[in-house]
Amino acid sequence: MMNPEGGRHNLRFALFSSGAFFSCEVMQALIDQDFRPDLLVLPEYPPAARTAEPDLGNIAVAPQRRLLALAGKIDIVYTPAAQQQQCARLIGQSAIEFLLVACWPYLLDSIVIESAAKAALNLHPSLLPRYRGPDPVARQLAAGDTTFGVTLHRLNQRFDRGDIIAQAALNHPDPKPRREVLERLCARLGVDLFIDAIGRFPDWKPVAQSCQWSPTD
């Protein structure tokens, strides 16, 4: 399987995406940098439409349509939680080197994590260990916390707890930022972290997450 629309990289990677707004923005940022994935992995169900949240900012409705449009000719596979073994086999057969997860609804089995030839990574739009779990930007806005950022970390068998590969704070001067704006900026910054990190593999220095403070523990 070749990258169908070209690209400036020779590394093969799969993007695991729920179709949520943040994951659409990650796909858009990858395309903007001519770094298209070789495989797009979606869960078994169409991602639920997101409605406007007046206090947290508007989120696009039915973002899966946008994700599928962005995917173009990229191969797509739907992977229910019960079919992870088949997904791992496909990743191995496709010679995928990296997995990149950007919003995913269930824990990936070790067989999937280990199917990547080099590493399986997750992009999380917060400065872990802060705001682990789903919808970190929405929860951070609700808490009035303005220290936004994004984390690239290894996948393991616990949500958002793998060793940190790279992390960056987001400088945003707006005192009342909108959620979709923050998620878009986090996605772009996160893609920069991902591209830089895979270019430096295997010379990483992963950092274990501190458990000193996390509002979602």
What topology emerges from the helices and strands here?
Layout: E1 13-17, H1 21-32, E2 39-42, H2 63-71, E3 75-78, H3 84-93, E4 98-102, H4 110-113, E5 119-124, H5 136-143, E6 149-154, E7 164-169, H6 179-200
Parallel strand pairs: 1-2, 1-4, 2-3, 4-5
Antiparallel strand pairs: 5-6, 6-7
- The helical percent reads 25-40%
Q: Give a quick account of the main beta sheet: strands, pairing sense, barrel closure.
A: 7 strands, mixed
CATH domain topology: Rossmann fold
Low-confidence stretches: 1-8, 47-61, 212-217
**CATH superfamily annotation:** Formyl transferase, N-terminal domain
The CATH class: Alpha Beta
Radius of gyration over C-alpha positions, nearest whole angstrom: 16 Å
Characterize the overall form. Answer: globular
Instruction: Kindly report the spatial arrangement of strands forming the biggest sheet.
Output: 3-2-1-4-5-6-7
Assign the structural class, choosing from mainly alpha, mainly beta, alpha/beta, alpha+beta, or little secondary structure: alpha/beta
Mean pLDDT: 85
| CATH level-two architecture | 3-Layer(aba) Sandwich
**How many discrete domains?**
1
N-to-C terminal Cα separation, in Å? 41 Å
How are helices and strands ordered from N to C? EHEHEHEHEHEEH
- What is the number of helical segments per DSSP (H or I, 4+ residues)? 6
Could you tell me the number of beta strands? 7
- Content of β-strand: 15-25%
